[in-house]
Amino acid sequence: MDFLKKHYEKVLLGAVLLGLAGAVGFLFFKIASEKEELDRKGTELTTPKVKPLPDLDLGAYQAVLQRVAASALLDLSAPHKLFNPMPWQKTADGRLVKMDANSVGPKAVIVTKLSKLYFELTLDNVTVEDSVPKFTIEIKRDAAPNPRDRRKTSRYCKVGDKNDLFFVKECRGPKDSPTNVVLVLNDTGEEVVLTNDKTNSFRRVDGYTADLKYGPENRILGTNHRANTPPPLTFNGETYDIVAINKNEVILKAKSNQKKWSIPYNGPD
């Protein structure tokens, strides 16, 4: 106690000096912290994080630009009548018909009938000579280009033979009396099995013939027309060839300009 009484001023001064030293140390840390905070706020103010703007909707403008870029097409051809007056034509029976593309010319042709042309194979006879079966194959080709080839003919052959129509692949049944023969068609590679009792012949559609009529003149243009076969058709001042016939249409080709026309068939199969 005597020490404190004699030296309390020094003790008090020491405590104050220690407090001042602590305050000075604290100021160093405080200044650093404040400076860091000021730098952060300065950075946020000078380089703020900006939310990106939404994409602009340019659809309407692009549509306008596309319409401007597209060239306008003014079609004054048929069926417009401003510069294309509609002529009429009197038929042989006194009727008046429009002279448009649908009323006269190829589009006025009517397919009244289509007939199928068949390719047929039939096993007509089987004989065995020296243990070798031989077959008589009856052939009918309605669609052959040459009329003489359309007549029914026969081919005599054995296993392993090949001709312009088929290859004889094998025979089936007893060796001394085969009942079936297997052919391979040259054009399609299809296997065909024929029996000697003629119950299993082969037949397919290889083409068509057409009966045609020209509506404006109510005139029959002929029957059983074949594709690429004369005579040509003549109507409305023009000549046409039949270049193709299938189950749905007949194709005509004008001799003057080689333009082709499809004539639909709407009758029964």
- Global shape: elongated
Number of helices: 2
The poorly predicted ranges are: none
Structural domains: how many: 2
Order of helices and strands: HHEEEEEEEEEEEEEE
Strand order of the largest sheet: 5-4-3-9-10
Mean pLDDT: 85
Rg, rounded, reads 50 Å
Distance N to C terminus: 136 Å
* Structural class determined from secondary elements: alpha+beta
Helical amount among residues, as a percent range? Answer: 10-25%
Strand segment count: 14
Oligomer: single chain
Percent strand equals: 35-45%
Q: In this structure, how is the largest beta sheet organized?
A: 5 strands, antiparallel
In short:
With 269 residues, the chain is of the alpha+beta class. The protein folds into 2 domains: 73 residues; 165 residues, no CATH class. Helices cover 21% and strands 38% of the residues.
What does this structure look like?
By secondary structure, the protein is α+β, with helices and mostly antiparallel strands. The protein has two domains: 1-73; 105-269, no CATH class. It is 21% helix and 38% strand. It starts with a helix and ends in a 5-residue tail after the last strand.
